[in-house]
Write a structure and sequence with these properties.
42% of the residues lie in helices and 11% in strands. The chain is an alpha/beta fold and 602 residues long.
Amino acid sequence: MQNSAAKTDKNTSRSKTYLLFLAICALVPCFTFFIYAPFELYFANINEFWFGLSSFWFVSVGFALLSFLILFSIGLIFRKFGKVYVYGALLAGGGLASFIQGDYINLKLGVLNGEEIIWSDYYGRFVINALIWIAIIASAVILSVIFKNKSKKPIGVICAVILIIQAVTLTTLAVGGDKKDTSYGKVVTVKNLFTLSDKNNVVVFLMDMFDSDYMNEIIEDTPSVKDDFDNFIYYRNHTGSYSTTLYSIGSLLAGQHIDNSYPSFKDAVNAQSKSEKCMFPELMSKDCSIDMYFPFAEMAPDDVLNANTALSDPEDSYYINNYFRFSIKLYKLSASKFAPDFMKPYVWVDSSAFDRFRSSRGENAAYSEDNIALHELFDQGTVDKDDKEHFKFIYATGAHFPYTNDENFNRLPGDDYSRERAIGSARGSLKLCLQYIEKMKQSGVYDNTTIIIMADHGFYTEGALTNPLFMVKPSGSSEPFTISDAPTSSINFQATVMSAFGYNDDGRYGVSNTDISEGDRPERYFYQYSLAEPNVNNKFRLIEYKIAPEGNQRKMFSLTDREIETDGTVVVHHENCAYCEEHGMETPDVPNYEGILHEQKK
């Protein structure tokens, strides 16, 4: 009887050991992928996400619990066949491999800005990485096969160590890492988006990365687009000022090129916006309604943000409008770091992946720059009138990669970076503008409104020198669509706006695009920078080019031999450039698509 009781106790103890072993082995992959991965990514990049931890922690915990129950239940089946240690080792090996992948051998591919990644360049890496995964998992399985019951202790200890390391890491990031920046907690809504005046309005549509070459191709292939944009002037010889959105929009809103000598990019924008060259102080003094619809608070002067009528009250906050699709993106983001490298092409997401799931509480819906969302919004909107002048700045993703829609606003997967898709997105961007313009015509405010359709920069790839779209419909214009080869640039933006309002008679804001003739020879500068290089408080090393007035083709760009460092220091470019040291200063006939990288000498 005692032997029977002892045997029962022994079986019960062994059963508990089996279950405990199975539980900790199942917990490692579930906790690693569904909780540790998204939490670690969130805490390490806390100010890159519009949502807070409170918005999704329960999603992660829910998925972790569900997956744990599934894996644990499957393990009970394996136990009946005497394979519980092999199964547990398989789970533990997968969890360990994922942990090592994310924290120690992650494939670093730079900024998640949607730029196309040439995955074929990494095929060798994919194979090596897959072999590492196989080695880790196979080692755990072989250990369990050879040592069977004796393997449970080392495997269990490894699992416990992994979980402890992850818990300590998350605690350290949560307590000692960056804190959520709540200094600017307001939400950009659609408030006043369709409010205009019978007096005077300037409406700016900024279509991100709409290259002027796209417009040239569209005009050539579809001449009827000229009729669609009757009264507009297309500045074919227009040039941008910077490589990407950060400096481009910052410069547009500050009214001048960005001075890198300030402690941070935001400090520079704030300081320069207070100068007499910036239009906003005068617009505010004239009680002009400043209605700005774009998500980049770091690029805009604080005074302008505070004056923006589109902001919701601080107590309003964002919420996730589709948890199912949000969860898919969340775990694609997690897999981008914690899954094997060969899976990266199928799960890679860009930094705007979560924007379409954002809504705001309160009476006004959150503004979304997504082309398809704006298409639906513009389709439903109607123009209201008040007695104020309006400056509207309406930002859309436009023709920025990854191309999310075709010209008819059908949603596209983000894995095709073809020229065809770029042109489709560009055509869709023009249709967006026409939708809003039609609303203006219906309400009778079209004629007294100056309309600017532009881009912040042209097509971006490392080292490229490109030009953004710029078209203007002057207030009261009855002229047909016109193509101008006047040498204009983005630095003329504020002068164009203020001249339209009648506030630039003394030329304090510069020269308006509409006042530049084809024979004029203004100085035009472009500052190239690479997102692959490190930045200091959002400031990048800038390489200066001067652009000849005769055109905006690549051969018109020439290095001035000046380079502005992140601390504002101006140095001789060729003395600090690895490319120029090896090849000499680049010649002006170098094709743009070669994308010469002027990297600093090590």
